[in-house]
Amino acid sequence: MSIKFYAVALCALLLLPASAYAGGFCCQLSTGTQEGFSSAGQISLRLDESYSRMDRFQNGGSQVSLSSVLKDPRFAKMNGVVPDVMTMNRITATVGYAPTDRLSLNVSVPYVINDMTMFMFMAGMWSWGPMEQIHDLGDVSVTGTYRIYQDKDDHPTTAINVGAGLKLPTGAISYTNSKKKRVHAHMQPGTGSWDPILLASFTKMLSPSFMAQAGAHYEIATANGYGYKFGDTAGVDAELRYNVTDFMNVSLGVNYFHSEQADDPDNKYNGRDSKRLTDYSGYTGEDSLWVSPAVQIMPFSGASIDLKFQYPAYYHVPDIEHVTSYRIVAGISYSF
Q: Of 66, 240, 253, 280, most Cβ neighbours within 10 A?
């Protein structure tokens, strides 16, 4: 499925009469539509599509132009490589099950589609061309969360969850192009590593129309079979959600993301070649702050359609880096 599918479905739902929908946060909580609350025996199915566009260059805390990067003497030398535009599409299917009111288990299976155009410095000049599309299964994640606190047993309005999980090395790490050359590490469908995941979340109904949510995650990167390590990642998210009508919520979120630098000690992915902006591990790692407006539609009890736009309001990177300009995330889910 594509972003177009979600956009059309969302527009269609907005035109339906309000009487066709479940009513407000109260009903959403009782059917498990809202994060942080679930019922024993509940099963949830979700499909998400994330589209990220990378056409921005950052040097420390400042944005720099493509032309200035192409003039940088680090890259303007034989076999130098500078990316132009990279798009990353991730379609993720998630199945969840709640054995009890407090425990939730989830399995997420992603499919990755990556495209990139880039410049290569050959014979004293830059040439431009597309890279072959990469599409394959990504890394499967298995997580579990437990509700350590709720304010009341019947229809709780406050919940605190903690959780843990593991990202499995199911995605390819030696994906090659038609010339049998291994593609860039961060274009690979998978990481090839077993990465522990730590989770925490907080949900609070402030009023019948307002809900606050916050969460944090930490992923511990380990080295894959080639010795490559992608770097630990951490994130903190905060969101305020408003129930506009019985069938629609809008929200505004702020997301902080941190990534450690990658490491390629055995140079299996050209991670020690500083003239390749696409590969050198020194051109990885970031601290960024994102603003995320979103809309959610509930067509009937237990179901939802979500559309979110994410824009980076702040970036800081260790050195020059190719970074994300914006991200669109769309999803559909059903709990029963």
A: 280
d(CA 314, CA 303): 34
SS3 of 79-107: the string is CEEEEEEEEEEEEEEEEEECCCCCEEEEE
For residues 211 and 241, the answer to whether their CB atoms sit within 8 Å is yes
Q: How far apart are CA 242 and CA 204, in angstroms?
A: 12
Q: Are 169 and 190 in contact (CB under 8 A)?
A: yes
Q: Hey, what amino acid is at 268? A: K
What's the confidence (pLDDT) of residue 221? 97
Furthest C-alpha separation in the chain: 72
Of the pLDDT bands very low, low, confident and very high (cuts 50, 70, 90), residue 253 is very high
Give CA–CA dist 330/294, Å, rounded.
9
Q: pTM of the full predicted structure?
A: 0.87
- Residue 194 makes CB contacts below 8 A (sequence gap 6+) with 166, 167, 168, 169, 222
Backbone angles phi, psi at 71, to 5 degrees: -90, -10
How far, in Å, CA of 53 to CA of 326, rounded? Answer: 6
Question: How far apart (Å, rounded) are the C-alpha atoms in residues 254 and 259?
Answer: 17
So where are the chain's domains?
Answer: 3-335
Contact 77, 51 (CB under 8 A): no
Element (H, E) at 28: helix 24-31
pLDDT interval class at 17 (50, 70, 90) = very low
How far is CA 233 from its chain centroid? 12
Task: Indicate the fold that domain 3-335 takes in CATH.
Answer: Porin (2.40.160)
